[in-house]
Amino acid sequence: MAQTLSWASSYYLPAVLAGAISKDIGVSTSTVFGAFSVALLVAAGIGPVAGRLIDRLGGRPVLIVSNVVFAAGLAALSQATHANHVFAAWALMGLAMGSGLYEAAFATVVRLYGQDARRSITGVTLFAGFASTVGWPLSAYLENAVGWRGACLAWAALHLVIGLPLNVLLPRAPRADQASKEATGAERGTGAGLAPAQQRRAAVLMAYVFAVTWFISTAMAAHLPELLLASGATLAVAVGIAALVGPAQVAGRVIEFTFLKRAHPLFSARLATLAHPLGALGLGLVGTSAAAAFAVLHGLGNGILTIAIGTLPLLIFGAKGYGQRQGFLMVPARIVQAGAPFLFGLAVERWGDSALWFSALLGLSACLALVVMTADMSKVSRAAEVH
């Protein structure tokens, strides 16, 4: 529930309020989204630091502080009268995003439950998958009722009244030295038992997969209606089909929570990376009549991959040092996410709906990276059986 609030009041806020903010303070909408990109870059920088603190102290104090920083950033944004104020407020929000969104939540449950955290990670994303469903209508309602400044203040108050108490209720993690003594052999080890060189290659491949995942997800969030219009859909149809992505993401997480709960996380991730390319292929070959299938496939894959971002590092590297490692693995993803709307926008301007071939190839390359990781792990498993 706290993650739903954090996502709704940060990542999903500009889509509703950017227009009103830009009009009120006399800047372009792109400037407001530029400030949001700054927040993503700040989040990339602070992520490893927050992860290391969670490894040492547990997630409870870090998430509590993130609620306070979220509230401060939103309050600062509500008082903005100049572009510089907007950038400063979003930079502050970036500190909270880097220490209070999924990566921090995943590190928190891994710190509490170790190798058994997969189910909790899936549960967190299942709830927070409704962040846009809750956040967009609520932000729109608040803007209409009390203006965009009042909406920001209302979100800030919700962090203090709801988010902070929820995170206070989290269990306290044992101290790092005590946790190290109590850890099982699997938790102390490297998860999959990879050699150092294989671990480095796995880290590079994993960071690439995460970067591709977030690039495609953010690009589609920004340009999906435009792409559907370019494929021949009417505006009403394009908006309606784009709205299917959110429920499909939640459906993907339900599938992971139920049918795929016993499947290997690498298998689930490989399956999920193929969903967007398959949908793009259908849209490219069949046209607008396949648009709904594309949106659903994209959403399903994206929902499962969000879980993979939490479970794959746990599987490959183990629970020890998970928070800091997760922070570093997500740095490239945060950086490309910041540039995704602009870069993919250029592709759409140049190629129209054919830009989907570019995102589809990226998805296939992510699947290939996961295949290489699977092969490395299979070699380790065979070697262990021989010994």
Automatic annotation (TrEMBL):
Transmembrane segments: 32-50, 62-81, 87-109, 121-142, 148-170, 202-222, 228-250, 271-294, 300-319, 331-348, 354-373
Signal peptide coordinates: none
UniProt-listed InterPro entries: MFS, MFS_dom, MFS_Efflux_Transporters, MFS_trans_sf
Subcellular location: Cell membrane
GO molecular function: transmembrane transporter activity
Membrane topology classification: Multi-pass membrane protein
Domain annotation Major facilitator superfamily (MFS) profile: ranges: 1-378
Cross-referenced Pfam families: MFS_1
Keywords: Cell membrane, Membrane, Transmembrane, Transmembrane helix
Record has Transmembrane helix as a keyword: yes
GO cellular component: plasma membrane
Matching PANTHER family: CHLORAMPHENICOL EFFLUX PUMP RV0191, PURINE EFFLUX PUMP PBUE
Protein name listed in UniProt: MFS family arabinose efflux permease
Provenance organism: Variovorax boronicumulans
